[in-house]
Amino acid sequence: MSLGFVVVPEGRAAVIERGGRFRTVLGPGRHLVLPFADRVRARVDLGEQILSAPPQPVEAGDGREVLIGYEVVFAVADPRLATYEIADPASAIDRLTRTALRQEAGLTTAERAVTAPGDLHRTVWTVLHDTTARWGIAAKELELTVSPPAAPGTPSTAQEWY
């Protein structure tokens, strides 16, 4: 059996399987592999990625709406976990952030959400950081934009969450 090469560019990793089971993670460079035994399961970008959502209407606990937008900076910390634990990390982080924001906004008043967004940020950050760590993802930053809704009659550019 002849040997083959796998070339992994800088800033990326390759997850290798042998016989359908995880074998190893290859870092940047040229690597020898067994052509018919080893296969590249995934090529993973290790660079920071930014996920953002424009301000969306969210109902607070007092029944009033606030507009909440966010930006999450994340990177793959463990290519093996990021490959096998979660199918689409960006989509999962987006859904997780939206769900946590809705849940936490529903526990506070609209006025408190706008005047003291630090409480909302702290709770959502904890959920985001803890959950993504299990997926092999490092959540690096979370930025929230919380504001009251536009006055009636003012054109709104808000989009639906889904």
TrEMBL record:
Residues 3-161 form the Band domain. Pfam families: Band_7 (PF01145). Coiled coil: none annotated. Belongs to the band 7/mec-2 family. This is SPFH domain-containing protein. The lineage of its organism: Bacteria, Bacillati, Actinomycetota, Actinomycetes, Pseudonocardiales.
